């Protein structure tokens, strides 16, 4: 039985999201090289501060960490943006301020630039900083010129990666041998949110023509170009690929895009979810997850955009209900499977109290028993799912 001390009301998704936010930031958050005004997410805990900084660099994990903090910041805004309404208490930094420090940390850790070798990584950071800038405007705390510089710099990167090779689409990396959904979809979403609807629509049209699988109603992974010039379709179906496509379809709107968005939501329910008994009574439809490492983020990303579909009144009621059910059922499973950190384990040195499972179908006690190394990606994923559930119940500040 999972301890229930301090468990918020079953309907209080905002309180659950706050619990996740406090635990993830406490366990994984640290200054970059002890520098004031910086923040960065440790890749693994338990692990020393310096050891974490010499681990392989996961730029895109940090970009999603920014997104999660923006989610928490939007909830703080809904509470009046006062110190008392902060997710971590009045004496701690606001979520928006912590996110700004994280963006600074990302730049410094990435050798004083926001540019790297992967266009999908950069697209995720561009999207999260765009949301951070909007949060800053709404809280009357305008972002520094840095945010504008991020967008100018990364827009140039996306423009260079979006070419006529293979009929369109965006390259995945600077090797320029793979055009795929993981890069094309978030770039399309970024273009749609920055006043370039024609560019965004062209990318969606390319995805529909090249990578949409009508038999499944979902998007395949990508087109790989060999050294001989041959093109191979990578037919993998991944949860996170469907999310930003869905987001771009909703952002652009229009009859055809909204019809395709509805198709994607229903296809996700058919193909990427499975029945799961929740607390031994009601059968729920829980989204599959893709393990640890990069895969530890995949389903959280999908839930972010399913939450947008769940509250979009342009979609049919049954589609919205399906999107809502997928998010809430998955969030409920993650919450039910959480594990409280005991006082005797190494993670207790941090202020965080909760761990979440790698898979919602199993408990965190199975995924991460006391003493196990815990990856940031998997905890961000559960936090994202809980934020998505909270956003469905309080949709006004979602973006």
Terminal residue distance: 36 Å
Structural class: mainly alpha
Q: Could you name the ranges where pLDDT drops below 50 across 5 or more consecutive residues?
A: 1-6
The count of strands amounts to 13
Read across the widest sheet, the strand sequence of neighbours is 4-7-8
Description:
- The protein is mostly helical and 399 residues long.
- The protein has helices at 13-28, 49-53, 59-78, 95-109, 119-138, 145-161, 181-193, 197-210, 239-252, 255-271, 298-310, 317-336, 364-367, 376-393, and strands at residues 29-30, 40-41, 44-45, 178-180, 212-213, 218-219, 222-225, 231-234, 273-278, 282-287, 339-340, 354-355, 374-375.
- The strands form 6 sheets. Strands 4-7-8 form a 3-stranded antiparallel beta sheet. Strands 1-2 form a two-stranded antiparallel sheet. A two-stranded antiparallel ribbon has the order 3-13.
- Helix 3 (59-78) runs parallel beside helix 14 and helix 5 (119-138) runs antiparallel to helix 6 (145-161).
- It is globular and about 55 Å long.
- The two termini are 36 Å apart.
Explain the layout of strands and helices.
Layout: H1 13-28, E1 29-30, E2 40-41, E3 44-45, H2 49-53, H3 59-78, H4 95-109, H5 119-138, H6 145-161, E4 178-180, H7 181-193, H8 197-210, E5 212-213, E6 218-219, E7 222-225, E8 231-234, H9 239-252, H10 255-271, E9 273-278, E10 282-287, H11 298-310, H12 317-336, E11 339-340, E12 354-355, H13 364-367, E13 374-375, H14 376-393
Antiparallel strand pairs: 1-2, 3-13, 4-7, 5-6, 7-8, 9-10, 11-12
Helix pairs in contact: 1-3, 1-14, 3-4, 3-5, 3-14, 4-5, 5-6, 5-7, 7-8, 7-9, 8-9, 9-10, 9-11, 10-12, 11-12, 11-14, 12-14
